């Protein structure tokens, strides 16, 4: 009497050499698709938050150079003081501009490129009195502390 098996047929090949069934491949691809669909948005948000550090760093660095000019020359705007604006952050995600007068300044870091998707903090602002602001939905204190 001959045995009849439903499903897979046995072969003489060892188990290590047997291939995957179509169902196993489909389940694997489906699982990877679900993981990717969940991970990609989180990764993009992480990158946006990471680039906000560039804006804050560049604004504070420029403000420090301007404060040094004001201390040495008694003016923020002076030929002997070289603060190059506009400038783009190293990652190319913010463009720093500013209005620099003799006794005041207002610096702005505006998101460019992929960073334009940042609706939470948006642009960053800093003036000579240390007032910090943002154009986005979150409070300036949250965005400037980096706890967004």
Spatial strand arrangement across the major sheet? 1-2-3-4-5
- Unreliable segments of 5+ consecutive residues: none
Strand content: 15-25%
N to C succession of SSEs? HEEEEEH
Care to describe what's here?
With 148 residues, this protein is an alpha+beta fold. It has one domain. It contains two helices and five strands. A five-stranded antiparallel sheet has the order 1-2-3-4-5. The protein is rod-shaped.
Secondary structure: elements and pairs:
Elements: H1 22-73, E1 87-88, E2 94-100, E3 105-111, E4 124-127, E5 132-134, H2 140-145
Antiparallel strand pairs: 1-2, 2-3, 3-4, 4-5
Looking at this protein, list some descriptive labels.
5-stranded antiparallel beta sheet, 148 residues, alpha+beta, rod-shaped
